[in-house]
Amino acid sequence: MNIVEFEQPDGVLVQFGGQTPLKIANALAAASVPIMGTSPKDIDLAEDREKFGRILGKLKVTCPQYGTGRTLDEVVAVAKTIGFPVLARPSYVLGGRAMEIVYSKEQLIDYIARSADVTAGHPILIDEFLEDAFEFDVDALSDGETVHIGGIMQHIEEAGIHSGDSACVLPPYKITAEALDDIVRITKDLALELNVQGLINLQFAYKDGEIYVLEVNPRASRTIPFVSKTTNVPLARIAAQLATGKKLAEYELNPWDRNNHIAVKEAVLPFNKFPQESIFLSPEMKSTGEVMGISSTFGESFRRAIISSGNKIYHQGTVFVSVNDPDKLNVIPIARDLQEIGFKIVATSGTARELQRNGIPVDPVFKVGEGRPNILDHIMNNDIQIVINTPLGSQSRFDEESIGRACIQKGIMAITTLSGAEAAVRAIRSRQKIQIKSLQAYHS
After folding, report:
1. What integer pLDDT is reported at residue 397 of this predicted model?
2. For the whole model, what pTM was predicted?
């Protein structure tokens, strides 16, 4: 308010500062500060769960089941009604802080006890967690009358990992044309219903042929620079002009999906600076930056993104594989691909048995604490070049954590999701010499 009183601005743009300005938009409007773009009243419609739920109902849009509780009994009752696993989070948090996927009543009670300082005075939100769903991010421009889709990105990691930590691909790489049409239709309907003037960001999940709306933010998202560079459309500049009253019809905007290149956004995770931090990605954001890989193929773009984020890509050596029971069937083609490329496979006893039964040569290796030399010894002795290790839901992760820390020390690529492993196989297969090209050359 001191700045507003001193500068006497014609208006204030609240869309470009993340979540924080949206929280103070109502207070600014109440103090007679002229808000440009999407009005605080419409921002509140997207931020308030009950109001937003009514809008989704009116537009016949599906979202995961959700509920809210203020006491322990209320929260447990809501979670039981929805059914485990659920996503638990305090209301009004940034960056997914204190957000957790909860698999049982006992884990939920433990979560509430641990999060008491964060949740004090605020309700706890419980959402149905869609396991094994694909997640999509959409950035769009609206002038209140028409909507332009800026870009639709698909996350490489499954739903449940914070969008700031997940690698993203533009255009998407695994979705039906019908589901993509649904995403476009829902984006346009919601942007117009919320009377957005400027930018809007939506997050969707795709599971069993069904599209679910996870989140709607009437503001610029962190993916705007990535999408703008990929599509050659200055989204932030146009959004600022729309907020002042310009119309989309005044611009000649290229369709987001007519490019001849594929761009991959990869998060930069600072685990080497925080060796005690868990390497397993979760709803709580851990990345401190991001890089972009761009080329004509998905594998090559992902390879460039991996290299840019500070990881090494090996084209030969030994891969350690240890996956949880639900992943055992789906890891077989990944292990077979790596073996055909020329990698040697080592695995813990359960995973090794599954792979051997499916005709893949594997050397069993001890888990941490089972005997020596164990997998930790092999990593520290530089015998392992890639680790594929998917965590076991709510079970103890002691082994995984110690393996993760050893990988950080040795600069080994540790992959903690099968979708990430599939993408890594494509990157390893892409062996051509990297040809440097400017963004301008891609768009010319």
Report:
1. 53
2. 0.86
